[in-house]
Amino acid sequence: NRELILDSDEAYAEAFRDIFTEAVRCRLRSAFPIGSHLSGGLDSSSITCVARKLLAEAGDAQLHSFSNIFDKVTECDERPFINAVLEQGGLIPHYVHADQFGPLSDVDDIWQYEDEALLGPSHHYPWRLSQAAQQAGMRIVLDGLDGDNVVFHGVSRLTELAHQGEWETFVQEAEAFSEHFGNSPQGLLKHYSILHLKTLAKQFRWIAFAKAVHQIHKRFGISRKHLLLNHGLKALVPEAINQLWRKWRRQDKLVTSVSPLVNRNFAERIGIDQRIYALDKSDQPSLTVREDHWRNLSQGIFPLILEQLDRYNAAFSLEARHPFMDKRLLEFCLALPSEQKLYQGWSRMVLRRGMADILPKAVQWRGGKAHMGPNFIHGLLTVNRQVFDDVILNKLELIEGYVDTDFLRQVHRRMTSGGRVREKDCMTVWQGIILALWLDRTQATP
User: Fold this and answer.
1) What is the DSSP letter of 422?
2) Per-residue pLDDT tens for 290-317?
3) Which domain holds residue 401?
């Protein structure tokens, strides 16, 4: 719970820049050329720009950059931001044409090093970047892994503002965030302030509840009656009654309340619905930015991804170094006040200020980043179509003990019918296909 108090925004920015620069500096030691991932996002661009500056000051060899580019699936292409960094000079660029391979292109090679089915469909990007780095003669690569969680976006500051009754600031931040990142202010209200109403109701703080309802109604136009019934009175219903109500509503729909992909008999046998409910119940929403930040840093997915990337790099005789994983930087960012994370609608504000005159302004003040969903669809339906169809036609018996294969076939038909492909269908299909391919490789049976 320690909070770092400095004199000004400039002091926070300078402190961040000093610690971050040292985190990069102490990862530059190498007797061989050094590479850096450069996606055009805030994290990899910050590392690349600082590393380039440090190498130039030391009179060492130029830094090599490695970037995914997309000639066919142009909505995923980030070259305007990549080029903004390259135009500053001092880099030797290398490119991977990431729309020429798909999520199933490298699984057999990756499974020489992995011991399990792959979690998400983006594994092929770091794999191909590592391959390109080896081919260029690198031994060391700098990776911008998870700067998102280390510096932290801080959008949960909206929850803090609601809890403090600072509705004017809440609205200002929500509207500015929406302008920068494309979210709706109403969506932000629903996600980040409703918890506060329920808390007030459970504490019987009805005067504060009424004031909050008045502000929400005034600024967002949401019905007072709706807020009172759904987020006030319902919050008072005992949990035992809620459980009975949920059980009654789902008595014939146990699995579909979780995922229609899961085989019903398998789900009932292992009690998947109860497991997920218990997990959700134990993960109550955070009331402060620092608590939210700490929870994100403490997730098991963090070491899982680091270990996975280590294997991907080791396969190509590379060592990946992660400046954002520096303990000093982690502790500094966790201790920052919430307004250093979200301010005037800009997330990760301390990094943006700290990288002034180092990052190109186009990168420093960019909003979101390219979504890789379109390239996943292209890879699955075009590049890997033969493997995709073969699994659906010939390998589903391997997973029928775990997966509703009829549902999976329906999703496959929807995706290959020529109509608009839903992103939800893509993840459903991915989970089924990767499990089938993994079981086929290991010769395991349900």
Assistant:
1) P
2) 999 999 999 888 899 999 999 999 999 9
3) 384-442
